[in-house]
Specification:
Chain lengths: 135, 135
């Protein structure tokens, strides 16, 4: 089973986002374990992580199909994702990341990125299993 | 004030998405009027719309800043966005669109696209007004 850490800062304030994250965590149960590391020093923590994937607008982008392949073939089953705050990630964190991934050329709220990340991880697993979730 | 139609099919089922859409519609109040056209024949309706923007993975992509400029300078204040179902949009609809816009190389659920669209339209207005919402 995948074990994924998500490192970021700031509590989820909106009720809708709490419900949405719960929904995708429920869907991921038994497939992927999600551990939230919500800490103002999340960047320092990130620097100590081994398989660090940084979410940043200047990163590489993938289709959901390629993301699924990459997740299973290259990234491995123990991963830490780091999501920057309003000012983005430090160059030190970006340098220490194994991969820098851009979700979209659009800017999303840092909180909405959490939801898009979970949905894409769930989608990646469903694509790999050939389920009907992905089209 | 902007007047925007969103043409698509399928009721919003998830509570979290209902709450999220309400939140962004509330934020858009007085800035943009959103009219939902949820109809199984949404593609036929779309063909009759003048300023049609089709959301499709094979479209052009924009940063949020360029989207804001494009919205104000080129697209105009009366717009219809069309979001395809599970099988995507017909070639007829894609051909009749003024612009084909891709939110991301990733695939999102057709329902989540509604939320991302509203958030980006709200962000585009805030960028134009120089507010603190965008970074």
């Amino acid at each position: 089973m995948f074990k994924v850490k998500v490192l970021t800062e700031g509590k989820v304030k909106e009720k809708w986002l709490q419900l949405a994250l719960e929904e995708y965590e429920k869907r991921l149960m038994g497939k992927m374990e999600i551990q939230w590391v919500i800490d103002k020093d999340f960047e320092e923590i990130a620097l100590k992580e081994k398989n660090l994937i940084a979410l940043d607008p200047n990163g590489s982008s993938y289709s959901s199909e390629i993301l699924s392949e990459t997740l299973f073939a290259k990234w491995g089953a123990r991963l830490s994702f780091v999501i920057g705050g309003a000012t983005g990630l430090s160059s030190q964190v970006l340098k220490s990341a194994k991969v820098v991934w851009s979700l979209s050329p659009l800017t999303f709220t840092h909180q909405m990125v959490r939801l898009i990340l979970l949905e894409q991880l769930y989608r990646a697993i469903e694509i790999n299993q050939g389920s009907s979730y992905h089209k």
